[in-house]
Specification:
This protein is an alpha/beta fold. The chain has 15 helices and 17 strands. The protein has a four-stranded parallel beta sheet with strand order 4-3-11-12, sandwiched between helices. Strands 7-8-9-10 form a four-stranded antiparallel beta sheet. A three-stranded mixed beta sheet has the order 14-13-15. The structure holds adenosine monophosphate and zinc ion (ZN).
């Protein structure tokens, strides 16, 4: 399998540290608001990665963090208010209540689009002692300094700083223009531990006095606590490259003195009318809203599978409606073809495996789905292949479509339909026409399309 590494800027062969077992850390949500479908696109990419690895025979251990402290409203230059406390204030609830509520909303939303649960969902607030340990090691090793109870990472001490994002130091300077923090040695230095100041909520004791962790150190602490000093893949959204992951590399490598992550992978953004879908800009949809409008939530998954994860994708309700129709039709096919005659499957599965191995070429895999539905493979073989592939696609292709649920079919009709499908396959048009008449007598109207037979039950 070849995967694109943001750090190496090219595709690399996947070479797991432990053969046959891939360990993945995925940057998870900050649980201060509902996730939108843009966020879900990033988690879907990680889900498809895990599913593809398993399809190709690997065992996968995935960790996804839940950020419930330390993520400030201006995360470029660690300024502003903690997002959790901001939300707690606005909603008149405790930060803990906010975290619990939005964590469970996130897990519900993820389930709606068939994102399989990670092995572990560590909460940042449960790892504060470990974060303090890492910060102490960074101080010992000369990568950090303390000023009035706040500990900063000294980016000047880590010559590789910038290697992931290629952010030059002067860009960092320019970005901090306006109100540089006079206590920082370099305006690009970032906070590892922030002194509580007047703050009383979400504050922990530490060797540097009461305070709370910076967002970046959380991921260094949780990833290495659960996956070890070296692991295979780290995922996130494109906006996580800088500063979040750049800082994570400086911290983790600063502590351990060696490379920690084998491959950094980033999913591109979902756009709405050309702009990044964002909570703060208010231009977003929740997956439940799409469901309320009558779309199958998995039609969003279908839509996401039609773009490469490294390409931006424009969201539109029209696009979603098209995906919804295509998905329902595909499920109807599978229902119709299941139980039909099996037979040789050609090279379809090999080509599917090549597509997903090629840096997760899901549009290529979806093109194979259409090709297969139009192919002359026997119906049963088509259905089994689609159901196999659905382990990666996660579209519930085996689900009975409610509009054509089996009980709606009069007795005996399912059998006649299957026989007619077989007759058509063996180009026995006399039999196929006779079966069509028999079905009509039962009130089932059949039409032939180039994708196969369609049927509907006449209202009585
Ligand atoms: P947040 O909860 O804001 O920390 O974001 C959670 C994840 O969603 C991060 O990995 C972001 O990179 C990702 N993300 C945010 N906005 C978008 C978007 N419009 N499209 C895709 N991913 C996004
Ligand atoms: Zn992270």
């Amino acid at each position: 399998m070849r995967l694109y590494s943001t750090l190496a800027r090219r595709r690399q062969d996947l070479d797991p540290l432990e053969p046959g077992h891939v360990r993945i850390y995925s940057c998870g949500p900050t649980v201060y608001r509902y996730a939108h479908v843009g966020n879900l696109r990033t988690y879907l990419f990680a889900d498809v990665l895990c599913r593809s690895l398993e399809y190709l025979g690997h065992r996968v251990t995935q960790v996804m963090n839940i950020t419930d402290v330390g993520h400030l409203t201006d995360d470029q230059f660690d300024r502003g208010e903690d997002k959790m406390l901001l939300s707690a204030r606005q909603e008149g609830r405790s930060a803990e209540a906010i975290a619990e509520f939005y964590t469970s909303a996130f897990l519900d939303d993820a389930r709606l689009v068939n994102i399989r649960p990670a092995e572990h969902y560590p909460r940042a607030t449960a790892y504060v002692p470990r974060m303090q340990e890492l910060i102490a090691r960074l101080l010992e090793r000369g990568h950090a300094y303390e000023v009035d109870g706040t500990v900063y990472y000294d980016i000047g001490s880590f010559p590789d700083y910038g290697k992931l994002s290629r952010n030059a130091t002067d860009q960092l300077l320019a970005g901090a223009r306006g109100e540089p923090d006079p206590r920082k040695r370099h305006p690009g230095d970032f906070t590892l531990w922030k002194a509580a100041g007047g703050k009383r909520l979400q504050v922990w004791d530490s060797p540097w006095g009461p305070g709370f962790p910076g967002w970046h150190i959380e991921c260094s602490a949780m990833s290495t606590a659960l996956l070890g000093e070296r692991f295979d893949i780290h995922t996130g959204g494109a906006d996580n490259v800088f500063p979040h992951h750049e800082a994570e590399i400086a911290q983790s490598e600063g502590v351990f003195g060696h490379r920690v992550v084998g491959c950094w992978m980033h999913g591109e953004h979902l756009l709405l009318s050309g702009a990044r879908m964002a909570k703060s800009a208010g231009n977003f949809f929740r997956i439940t809203e799409l469901g309320e409008q009558g779309y199958d939530p998995l039609s969003f998954r279908y839509l996401a599978l039609q773009a490469r994860y490294r390409a931006k994708l424009n969201f539109s309700v029209d696009g979603l409606a098209g995906a919804d129709r295509a998905l329902r039709q595909l499920r109807a096919r599978v229902r119709e073809w299941r139980g039909g005659p099996d037979g040789p499957r050609g090279d379809f599965d090999g080509r599917f495996r090549s597509a997903i191995s090629d840096d997760l070429d899901l549009p290529g895999a979806m093109a194979l789905v259409s090709e297969l539905t139009r192919s002359d493979l026997p119906a049963g073989a088509r259905a089994s292949l689609l159901l196999d592939w659905d382990r990666v696609l996660g579209l519930d292709l085996g689900r009975a479509a409610p509009e054509q649920a089996a009980p709606d079919l009069p007795d005996g009709a399912a059998d006649l339909l299957a026989r007619r499908e077989r007759a058509r396959e063996s180009r026995d048009f006399v039999a196929s026409d006779r079966l069509r008449d028999e079905l009509a007598a039962l009130g089932v109207r059949v039409t032939d399309t180039k994708e196969g037979q369609r049927w509907e039950v006449a209202r009585r």
